[in-house]
Amino acid sequence: MRQLQSRNCQRWSMTTTHLVQRISGLSRRTNMHFPGFCKFRPRILIDVSKIDLRTTVLGFNISMPIMIAPTAMQKMAHPEGEYATARAAAAADTIMTLSSWATSSVEEVASTGPGIRFFQLYVYKDRSVVTQLVRRAERAGFKAIVLTVDTPRLGRREADIKNRFVLPPHLTLKNFEDLDLGKMDKTNDSGLASYVAGQTDQSLSWKDVKWLQTITKLPILVKGVITGEDAQLAVQYGAAGIIVSNHGARQLDYVPATIMALEEVVKAAQGRIPVFLDGGVRRGTDVFKALALGASGVFIGRPVVFSLAADGEAGVRKVLQMLHDEFELTMALSGCRSLKEITRDHIVTEWDRPRIAPRL
């Protein structure tokens, strides 16, 4: 990514500076993987001449357990925005999740060609808007709904307030353009915060997961779970899966990093539904840690946006390939030939009791 940076210095600088500002201070530290948190326990003298990374997510077979998380407004990073990301995900044979607040509509992304795509949903106060959006996603061939549940109100994003953030005038939230909800008004603080306060439903509750099931047959993944109690409720209310996420560490300071919260959620789910991790993945070794702690796969956000800003579709393709290759190498050096061979015994965390070697 550093090499790609030099190819488009101005766009890289504008995009990454904005994003880095948004994750400064406590929030940034929250989602970092501390070097001492997790150590590997590799097994040796295992034939790793063949490594299989393929997996199945909600019945869809993909090349690796690395998928693309929903990230909004991608045309701020590159003129082709979500088009480029969709094509790169399809080329990598993995899943892309399109944000509600994308700068390309569900129909436009579908027009880029075949691919497995999920649609991330914010619930608006006007439920007819939600119904229209879900049905449009269904018609466009999207395969699941990713319901974001950790944003009843937007966290205090001080850089957005300082910069009085709004979308550039040539861009809109495309999925809401025909509903006259695609523009953000300029304000004295954050235009995004004002938009969210005015449009999204702060009364969202577990009963709304049931309501969504009445308007769509698509599986519903609940994104934003970081406690065992909420994992149990997600199972109880019929979620098809859980995504452990702290919203890129931009909502509430002092919440745990996603990798720290993962095992609690996995244990609470008890294998009844799959659990995925979203946030903090920067290397293939991070993917291995997540799977060893019980995740069925991971979603990546910032690596996609940074690589998109640097080199468009080619950049996203490259970062997906890098993570694929790093993860494959980590598996080989740990003595794992398939995903099912990655177990909790392959890592030791800082909260584990001292491990006593088994008797032979």
CATH topology: TIM Barrel
Number of strands: 12
Tally of individual helices: 13
CATH class: Alpha Beta
Q: Into which percentage range does the β-strand content fall?
A: 5-15%
Q: Round the Cα radius of gyration to an integer and report it.
A: 20 Å
Quaternary status: single chain
Please give the largest β-sheet. Answer: 8 strands, parallel
Q: Specify the helix fraction band.
A: 25-40%
Low-confidence runs: 20-29
Q: What strand line-up does the widest sheet have?
A: 4-11-10-9-8-7-6-5
Which secondary-structure class do the elements indicate?
A: alpha/beta
Distance from first to last alpha carbon: 46 Å
Question: How would the global form be characterised?
Answer: globular
Structurally, the number of domains stands at 1
Q: What is the mean pLDDT?
A: 86
Query: What is the H level of CATH, i.e. the homologous superfamily?
Result: Aldolase class I
Order of helices and strands: HHHEEEEHEHEHEHHHEHEHEHEHE
| CATH architecture heading | Alpha-Beta Barrel
EC number: 1.1.3.15
Pathway: Photosynthesis; photorespiration; glycine from 2-phosphoglycolate: step 2/3
InterPro entries: Aldolase_TIM (IPR013785), Alpha-hydoxy_acid_DH_FMN (IPR012133), FMN-dep_DH (IPR000262), FMN_HAD (IPR037396), FMN_hydac_DH_AS (IPR008259)
Cofactor: FMN
